[in-house]
Amino acid sequence: MDLIATYDSSDGSENEHELIPTRKLPKPSVSLIPNQPTANPLLHQGRIRSTPHVEGQFASFVYISVHIDVNLQRFLEEIALYAMERVPTLQSVWLGGTTSSDRELHISLTRPIYLFHHQRDEFIRAVKATADSISEFNGSFATFATFNNDERSRSFVGLEIGAGHEILRDISKSLEKALQFLRQEVYYLEPRFHASFSWALLETNDERGEELRDLYPTILELPSTLVPDLTSNYGDKLTGKVGTFHVDSLHCKIGKQVHRFPLE
Asked: What Gene3D superfamilies does the database record attribute to this sequence (predicted)?
């Protein structure tokens, strides 16, 4: 930065101008430059951000985590492979080297919400209060089902909840007051609690659609025969022991942080 300083003479003579030598400010440390989240769908399995990023705002949601044992892991691999053979555009994390850290299914109890820094503690307290009021319980997967996200940019194949549905609905309802206080959208009026195991991109008018299709081919919709085929071949096994699970905690993810709250 070139700095020029002008000095007035003390005896009333003509102003004199003195040129200060050039001084360059050091470049800021990389550690001081905040990381800006990228919205590039190519880096996030084709996901398209529906809500623009706002500095200081954190994507959040509440969910149940279902631990994956060996039997359920093998079952998920089997049904994912079966579904992908019938719909080649499907993708699944259960094939191609799933690690032990990935071995859990998520059952969402809220929509994705966006909290500012000062709202986080309030919401965490609400989730903890809900967890304190609910006892541990057993649940089960009952049927196969397909779902579209709210933006209708993705379609999912998942396992829908049977036993435990009423308790999950109670948990979701108990969070509504906190969500409304924070001006967030509550969960669906008729919730279908589920865990997804495969997904496909749907046709979209997004400007990056052509680029996305090179990596993730899109479809208009999943075939109506997929769920009946899965049910015919794997329904009995799903409703057996492999589809049961125990719930002992709630999870709340805010940004990159995950908070776990044991149930009563």
From this structure: Cyclic phosphodiesterase (3.90.1140.10)
